[in-house]
Amino acid sequence: EVVSIDIDSRDRVYVFSRGSHPVWVFGEDGKLLNTWGDGLFERPHGLIVAPDDTIWCADDFGHAVYHFTAEGQLLHTLGTPGRASETGCTDFDYRTIRQAAGPFNAPTNMALAPDGSLYVSDGYCNARIHHYSDDLELLASWGEPGAGAGQFAVAHDVGVAGDGTVFVCDRENSRLQLFASDGTFREEWTDLARPCNVAFDSADRVYVSELGFQIGMYTGSQFPDREQVASRVTVFDRQGNRLA
Questions:
Q1: Is the separation of the CB atoms in 94 and 100 below 8 Å?
Q2: Residue 225 pLDDT > 80, yes or no?
Q3: What is the value of pTM for the model shown?
Q4: Separation between Cα atoms, residue 67 and residue 83, nearest integer Å
């Protein structure tokens, strides 16, 4: 399973895999340049490349977020590897979360803001977004289990637009939630089917990968009373209008 991919300033491609080697590094021509991370992760989930070409990785089963050089040397660890925060979640099922808690209980992904601060979506067994300063001090956390504004049912990814707006893929609520940098709720976009990841291009378009309603449903889940779309990618403009 390949779970994440990103590209650095030299067009090297970083592939995060649940196979024998967690991180695969390819040249732009597809030539394999390096592999690293063997034995470090319980289960890879999210990877991003920072503007300085360092690498951030989320380990959901390991309850930790790691920061590496491009060659795989460990720089920083956020969270306590192997120790989940106390949310009451059982069997990796977001529906059993009793309360939100601190970092981390199955974090899913990260995003860097224009000011260098870091956001972490936490994720499968928590219902929070954690915001760290550029020197990795925890500044704030927000979110609770549920379906209201600022609540999450699997915060599967977090992204930061060029203007600093924080986008959260609230997967099992089938929506994007948009926040100010301090966690203040702004709006939600609901023309989505279980969004998994969000990305932005230089023209301010927003790309969302969606799991859809035909695969990956939790045991006992009911199909929603709406079109049962399959997996897809949707493109929005910055105002939330669907383009494709």
A1: no
A2: no
A3: 0.96
A4: 18
